[in-house]
């Protein structure tokens, strides 16, 4: 785990050094989750591996920053809040600025520019284009350079301007091809720049500051840094516009709500002032006079004192803290003017609220000895606290002074004295035993007190964790909105893919029927509609085996059940059927299981082909083959290279006297005594080269019984067949018959 933390810290430092972006103030859980998302997409299983991937692929920084910085924005996002801004805030700004005063607006985390351009349209609608360009400056800042570059171009797709009201779209955008470009004159008044609101100096004298859904991604300590910066940036009575998921200002005294539901706040001017020595006190009212020299001298003395002083007025508000007290208890400028009971010092190192009340009631000082106080990163110290009333010249108490003395050394000396005393009294066993019992009782009381303080701290920690979880849920809601947009896009793609698939099914010139596991029709393409006369909507959801069509579907029950059981295709079947016009057709049906990625059976697919003409052709070919095979004429199918027999008909086997197995081993020219292999090659060469379509020659063939008979051979070469084949037709010429010229005399001719 320590290695993972170290690798994560090293990765964050590398991002800062390479791109100048400091993520150290971001919430660790959100930041780590978004970086892991990019790691999964690029196939990295550890932070160290992703660190190496970034060094090898610098272009990955663009995708990483888009994922981490969450550039999710839109024009007039949360339109109800923008309506409140237009109705209640803009008129107040214009009223305060008068007719000529400049107006300065700052959009923090502007992403791709939709937010600052929405602000420009909002003010241009009220001021008009001319006065807007003369008076308004909009500063738009972000950490993502790629997003800022997109914002400067101000070019948006049709989907990105859907939230812009139609009148504003026509008035402030120019249509170019399939994109919309924001008006050039208004665009000149929007200044884009890279800025880190956590570490960079804030822009000052701002009338309206828009920082929406940024603070929710920052740690609580970082929010404590950013909020004073936003407060400083605004002019007195300036306005702050936050996102709907942000509630941090509900606990801040620096801002007050204008419309809490819309997250619109106004700046509260601070009423504290800093003395010359650095102490903080409430500022004089308008009628106050300049402090005289004696007052300045007293302030300097108090500020240079090594004793910490706090003053609480009669209303219980902290009104003064000198330099030593501020450093000792981490009191900020914003703490002056807050109720004392809201501050940590009111109960740590000890509970002081009841002591202040006691002093007010009794009018006497209360001293609290040697309280343990621990600051982070330093050794514990012992503080002695004096709580005393302060009286005005008329003798009335008007405030309570709390003095904090560091008595650590005195406490140590006291401990040493007590140890020496105890060592001297070790001989008195009874007194020592009594003393130990008293100390034990004291320790138990201290332990009980510490347990109560620990319980209080645990409750506070639990409250902080709940607030963190609430902020995380808001961040998750933002991510869900992004996921929803992605699902909408995927839904559109799925719809397009479905239409594409349906068009393919309609275009295929065979019947395709898809059945589910219950043999119910799920899909029925156009070929099936044309052949069987039933539309897709008529059969979808109907049991296939109950359909009344020209195909005898009950005969398919058994093979379909076998498919669902074995999840394997079955042999094709051919069936006689009748189409919707009454024409008899022959159908060849192929059946396969419908399998998904997980290989689970989801039904069956039937592919039906009309093979009527093919069946007729096959029947004729079979018929022709039978005639040729039974013919007494000799038919030889020869290899065109070796001239051995591939196949012969029945007449050839009988007249040659050999079986087909023997003939397959004999070249044709070996059975011709009158010709050798070379002469036969020359004879057949014109046929094989394509010079002649056929050759006819007479020769003698030797039978298996060594007898010789004269024959006439007609040879043809079919080069286009696969494989090419040489066909020879042979018949004996021993006895030829010739019909006389008068048609009534037939005589035998010698061979």
UniProtKB/TrEMBL annotation:
It comes from the Bacteria. One of its GO terms (molecular function) is protein-glutamate O-methyltransferase activity. Residues 497-567 form the PAS domain. Residues 1-268 form the CheR-type methyltransferase domain. Signal peptide: none annotated. SMART domains: MeTrc (SM00138), PAC (SM00086), PAS (SM00091). Keywords: Methyltransferase, Plasmid, S-adenosyl-L-methionine, Transferase. It holds the Pfam family CheR. Residues 434-457 are annotated as: Disordered. It catalyses: L-glutamyl-[protein] + S-adenosyl-L-methionine = [protein]-L-glutamate 5-O-methyl ester + S-adenosyl-L-homocysteine. Its EC number is 2.1.1.80. InterPro entries: Bact_Chemotaxis_MeTrfase, CheR_C, CheR_MeTrfase, CheR_N, CheR_N_sf, PAC, PAS, PAS-like_dom_sf. GO terms for biological process: methylation; regulation of DNA-templated transcription. This is protein-glutamate O-methyltransferase.
